[in-house]
Amino acid sequence: MPRYFFDVADGHRLFDSSGFVCDDDFAALIRAAVLAVGVSIDKPEDDPERHVAIINDQGREIGNVPVYSKPSSEHPSK
Questions:
Q1: Is residue 55 part of a domain?
Q2: Which of 9, 23, 37, 38 is the most buried (most CB within 10 A)?
Q3: Alpha helices of the chain — where are they, by DSSP H?
């Protein structure tokens, strides 16, 4: 099974050096979405450029998932 790397980018890039084994690109996309939620909870400020980049085991970026700001009870859709 291929290994994928999930870098967090927001003007600077935090590189994932260990990666995660996923069945395929779709499974990697799901993993990136879960990581994006975790990042939004850890660092809730709004940054429209922040995203989780999905890098395959050949070093190519195959997609990315935006990281949205943490929802609040006052503004649950944000």
A1: yes
A2: 9
A3: 25-42
pTM: 0.80
Q: What is the pLDDT of residues 13-67, one digit of tens each?
A: 889 999 999 999 999 999 999 999 888 887 767 777 889 999 999 999 999 999 9
* Domain membership flag for residue 16: yes
Q: Which residues contact 49 (CB under 8 A, 6 or more apart)?
A: 9, 10, 11
Residues 63, 13, 33, 74: is their CA dihedral positive or negative? Answer: negative
In a domain, 71, yes or no: no
In a domain, 45, yes or no: yes
What are the residue ranges of helices labelled H in 12-75?
Answer: 25-42
| Domain, as residue range, for 24 | 3-66
Question: Based on the structure, what is the number of domains in the chain?
Answer: 1
